[in-house]
Amino acid sequence: MFFNFRKCVNIITLTVRKSHSIKRFTHRKTDLTKVTYNVQRQNFNELQQKHIDFFRKLLGEHRAVMGVSNLEKYNEDWINNLKGSSAIVLKPKSTEEVSHILSFCNDNNLAVCPQGGNTGLVGGQLPVFDEIVISTELMNEIISLDDNSGVVVCQAGCVLESIDNILAEKGLMVPLDLGAKGSCHIGGNVSTNAGGLRLLRYGNLHGNVLGLEVVKANGEILDCLSTLKKDNTGYHLKHLFIGSEGTLGFVTKVAMQCPPRSKHTNVAFLGTQNFGKVLKTFKKAKQDLGEILSAVEVIDSSTMEFIDEKLNIKSPIGEYPFYLLIETSGSNESHDTEKLNTFLETALNKHFILNGIVASEPAKINTIWSIREKIPEGFKLCGAVFCYDVSLPLEHYFTLVDDMNIYMGNLSEKVFGFGHLGDGNLHLQIEMKEFSKEVKDHIEPYIFKRIKDLGGSISAEHGMGFLKAPYLDIARPQSAIKLMRDLKILFDPKGILNPYKVLPWRIF
Ligand code: FAD
Ligand code: ZN
Q1: CATH number at residue 305
Q2: Is the terminal CB of the chain with fewer CB neighbours within 10 Å at N or C?
Q3: CB of 241 shorter than 6 A to ligand 1
């Protein structure tokens, strides 16, 4: 059933949320990362014919790919912000092949860059110089699926959405969902500790990943592929690889617990007068909806203007300063709907919300979700956009957007914010006419210091990658950074695994 409450408004037709992979920009010319960011190449060997011969003998010519045009999609990110100059992409199919590759690279002092679906937003997946790209593209087998325990074991290159489709046949679902699900790989998700739209309900990957198989820099295979929910036998090594962005090891297999797929879903799209009312609505939603609350997203009016301008997507409920997308999912339609209706009635009566629509049919749910999920598509139509993924205490969630609006003045086209309110995770965007390193330097490190002052984190879910690595010292104390460096040396003494990422590559 699809119904509106209070005001009768008709939902406009939007593109339905469906399986799609991330499309790349074609119109922007990107300079090489090493030039734009003035990076010093570390002392690795350059690729020579004898190395190529080894890789081609191991994998064959079609899985040791060379040639500038073949490599374009592995050297550039989807948003065309960064560009590496790798001369070879390796596509192993098995853990053993990854092990041979890494052991050879380690012996020959060749730097590598692990790559999954190449949807990362901080450049961790791209070579900065000529690092050898090791893609998980062909490591895409589901190894086992136990529908009693809900545990799936698969290779690292399985696309998130493909795993979800297979789980759906067994009444299960992956415990994470993100806009890039049609392209990103589970190995990439684990390596970035991806958050996404349902973290509020299912928690993060540190909780949902039961085990990992990882290949170390020297080629040694580390079997931590437990499928048990409880396993307190010594140090929990898997956690070191979750979120380490390919700098400590190459993830080859993942064991993950998967919850039952909800039988009934409702989505409400609500308009509110100010951010104070957004917070009141969120608090009430937690109290009233309890266990069926599965997502709480917020969008500000500038973001809505942005997607109207770029994608011709309009708010289905008219214009408001803030919009909330609230999803419930559970097993009992009438119980869930009744709970949601009671919550909405109270929120309206207390004037927390001014208007809204509710959908419970899949096509209409998708239509509402696509308002939120299509926002990044608009980035492709900007001259350039600087994206900041940050955590903030809820009381300061939008303070940063207001501050940056003032700070940028006429330097930017637009500053706007949206995000996973339920997790205190804001996505702040600064739209530019064109990329300008000078303007970027004006923004950073100012913005990171401001986030720190507000009690937040400079990376909520995308990681540090290449772009944020120089600012790690703003986020973490020196003692923590030293321990990270010690761990890196222990796991990867020659530093061949994803250099220039996570740990600061520039000393200020
Ligand atoms: P890649 O981009 O290929 O790699 C990411 C990092 O992981 C790199 O450092 C890479 O070296 C490393 N890596 C990849 N595979 C391996 C491996 N097998 N072993 C070791 N290291 C590896 N992120 C969120 O958290 N939440 C969101 O809601 C979200 N929404 C997004 C929406 C859009 C439209 C887009 C484009 C991106 C979004 N992202 C989001 C960012 C991105 O999708 C995630 O970071 C995702 O987890 C990356 O997966 P990937 O397979 O593309 O990894
Ligand atoms: Zn996000």
Answers
A1: 3.30.70.2190
A2: C
A3: no
Condensed to tens digits (0 to 9), the pLDDT of residues 86-101 reads 999 999 999 999 999 9
Residue type, 151: V
Classify residue 316: in a domain, yes or no: yes
Q: What is the CATH classification number for the domain harbouring 175?
A: 3.30.465.10
What CATH code is carried by the domain that includes residue 434?
A: 3.30.70.2740
Q: Is the CB of 419 under 6 A from ligand 1?
A: no
Give, rounded to a whole angstrom, the gap between the first and last alpha carbons of the chain.
Answer: 58
Task: Tell whether 482 is covered by a domain.
Answer: yes
Q: E strand or H helix at 144, and its extent?
A: strand 142-146
The answer to whether position 460 is within a domain reads yes
Do 147 and 252 lie in a common domain?
yes
State if residue 185 touches ligand 1 by the CB under 6 angstroms criterion: yes
Rounded distance from Cα 68 to ligand 2 centre (Å): 32
Both 224 and 175 in one domain: the answer is yes
Determine the 3-state secondary structure of 164 from DSSP. Answer: helix
Q: Distance between CA 316 and CA 202 in Å, rounded? A: 29
Tell me what the mean pLDDT of segment 447-453 comes to: 97
User: Is 150 a pocket residue for ligand 1 (Cβ < 6 Å)?
Assistant: no
Which strands sit side by side in the sheet containing 425-432, from one edge to the other? 2-5, 355-359, 264-272, 322-330, 293-300, 414-420, 425-432, 384-391
Residues in the chain: 508
- Quick: pLDDT tens for 336-345: 999 999 999 9
Closest ligand by atom to 186 CA: 1
Residue nearest to atom 49 of ligand 1 (CA): 188
Whether cis (ω within 30° of 0) applies to the bond prior to 477 is no
Q: Is the CB of 391 under 6 A from ligand 1?
A: no
Q: Number of structural domains, the chain? A: 4
> What is the position in ligand 1's atom list of the atom closest to the CA of 246?
21
CA distances from 51 to 151, 492, 499 (A): 39, 20, 19
Residue 508, in any domain of the structure:
no
Q: Which domain does 304 fall in, by range?
A: 5-25+262-376
Two tokens at 493? 């003494």
Higher-pLDDT residue of 454, 508: 454
Residue with the nearest Cα to atom 26 of ligand 1?
A: 196
Cβ–ligand 1 contact at 188 (below 6 Å): yes
124 and 149 part of one domain: no
Same domain, yes or no: 59 and 128: yes
Q: 118 CA distance to ligand 1 centroid (A)?
A: 7
Looking at the structure, tell me whether residues 327 and 404 fall in a common domain.
Answer: no
